[in-house]
Amino acid sequence: MQEEQREQVALFRYGLIAPILQGGVQNTQEYLAEVAGRVHQVPGSGAVEYSPKTIENWYRAYLAGGFEALKPRRRSDKGESRVISPELKQQLINIREQQRDISLTLFYERMLAQGVIPAGKVSYHSVYRMLKRLDMVGERQRKEPERKRFQFEKVNQLWQADFSQGPYLRLGKKKVETQLFAFIDDASRLVPYAQYTTDQSFDSLKQVLKQALLRRGIPSVIYSDNGKVYRCQQFELACASLGIALVHTRPYDAAAKGKVERLFLTVKQRFSDGLDASVLTSLDSLNQAFQRWLEQDYNNKPHSAIGMSPMQFYLSQQSSLRMIDDPAMLEPLFMRREHRRVHHDSTISVRRLLYEAPPRFIGQSVEVRFDPADMHEVFIYEQGKQVARLTPVNLAENAIAKRDNTLRLSSFSDQEAR
After folding, report:
1. Are 64 and 101 members of one domain?
2. Shared-domain flag, residues 236 and 303
3. Are residues 47 and 101 in the same domain?
4. Would you state the torsion angle of the CA atoms of residues 224, 228, 231, 232, taken in this order, to the nearest 10 degrees?
5. In the chain, pLDDT over 70 holds for what percent of residues?
6. CA dist 211 to 191, 218, 222, 386, 396, Å?
C-alpha cells in the first residue's frame, strides 16, 4: 500500500474518532455502537462494516501514537516467509536457544523429525532467513554474549531509559494497570525523574522526559530499547534538537540496560510491594507516594556501587552540567512536525481542521508544528524558529468581515466547497 493511500485510510479512521477526541461525545460506547452500525466507504477498500472494538482500538492507537498510528501497518515480516506463524517462530527461537551447539542444517532436520516444523510446509531457507536476522544461525560457544560491565565517569554522559509494569489501581470496580517510565543516570545512579502512567504513549514519555530535563539537565546520550515509543519521530527530533544522541539496544538484549532493570527491581522490593491499599485509589496518589520515596529513600541513600548516595554524586558535578535555562523552549521540541501548503485564501488544513495563516505564506509549503492532543493552535516554523501562530478559522466572522469583494467571494466559495 502506497504512503498516500495509507494517509487516506488514516484520515478516514480519524474522521470516525474525531468526535470523541474533540469532546463532542457524551457516551463513548453508544457512539461506537452507532458508528459500527453503518456501512462505510473506505479508501481503497469500498464498503466496509466495523465492530465497536475496532473503532475503539483506533481511538486508543491515536492516543498512543498520534496520526501515524492510524495508518495501516506495513508488513512487519518483509523479507521473510509468511508461512512461519508467530507461534512457530517463537517456538523455534526457544528451541534454538538450547541447541546452539549444532549446525542449522541438523537443527532443521531435527525439527522436521520431531514434528515441530510441518513436513512440506516450511522450507529450510525460510527458517534460515528468520534465524539469520536474530543472529542465531552459527554455532555459539557461550550461552550469553560476552559482556563487560561499564560505568561512565561523569554525570549526564548517559541516561538509561525504560518502562516497567507497575501496580494495579483500583478505581471503583475497575482494575487499571500502570506503567513506570524511568530514566537513570549511568554514573551516579540518580533517577532524574520517573513517573507512573496508564499507558506507554509518547505523551507519557514526553511528560517524564521534560521533568527529567528540567530537574537534572541535558544528557549527552539516552540509551533505550527498540520499543515503538522510543522510535517515534517526535522523540527522535526532540533529542536531536537538544543535542542528545539516541542509542538503542540490540533486539532481545534486555541485559544491556542492566542499571535501569536493577532500578525496577529495587522499586518493586522497596516501594511497590509494601504499598498501602489507600495509595492505589488514584494515579495522583500513587505518584505522590512514589516521588516521596524516590527523593527521601532511593536518591538520598548510599548506593553500594558508588560508595555514596546518588544525589551526593550528582551534586559533586552539578556545576559542569548543561541545564535548561528556559523551560518554555522545551514544548515546541516535542510537537508533531508536518509540511502543509497554504491555500490561496490564506488558510491551511491540519488534521482536517482549517486554520488562518498570514497572507505572505499563500502558495508556500510550510512546516507546521502542533500538539495532537490540543489542536487549539498550530505554529509555522522557518529554519527552526516560530514565525506565526495559527488559530482555527471562524467562518461566521469571515462571512461579515470587510475585505476586497473578489477575495471575499473566492474565499467563501473555496470554504463552501470544502
Report:
1. no
2. yes
3. no
4. -140
5. 86
6. 11, 11, 15, 23, 41
Using DSSP, state whether 221 is helix, strand or coil. Answer: strand
**CB count in 10 Å sphere of residue 377:** 12
d(CA 272, CA 274) in angstroms, rounded, equals 5
- 135-139, 201-205, 315-319, 382-386: least confidently modelled range: 135-139
- In DSSP notation, 81-99 reads -TTS-HHHHHHHHHHHHH-
Task: Please tell me whether residues 163 and 260 are part of one structural domain.
Answer: yes
CB of 71 closer than 8 Å to CB of 96:
no
Give CA 14 to chain center in angstroms. 18
Q: Of 279, 295, 320, which one is at a domain's C-terminal end?
A: 320
Task: Answer yes or no: are the C-beta atoms of 385 and 367 closer than 8 Å.
Answer: no
Residue 141 lies in a domain: no
> Are 118 and 65 within one domain?
no
pLDDT tens digit string along 12-63? 888 888 888 867 788 999 989 888 888 888 877 777 788 889 999 999 988 8
- Report the C-alpha gap between 18 and 26 in whole angstroms: 13
Question: Is residue 181 domain-shared with residue 222, that is, in the same domain?
Answer: yes
Q: d(Cα 219, Cα 157) in Å, to the nearest integer?
A: 6
Alpha carbon 418 to its chain centroid, in Å, reads 33
Range of the domain at 263: 158-320
pLDDT averaged over the chain? 84
In three-state secondary structure terms, 168 is: strand
Residues 314 and 169 in one domain: yes
- Structural domains of the chain, count: 4
C-alpha distance from residue 24 to each of 21, 31, 56, 350 (Å): 8, 10, 16, 19
Q: Which amino acid makes up residue 234?
A: Q
Q: What are phi and psi of 165, to 5 degrees?
A: -65, 135
CATH number, domain of 390, equals 2.30.30
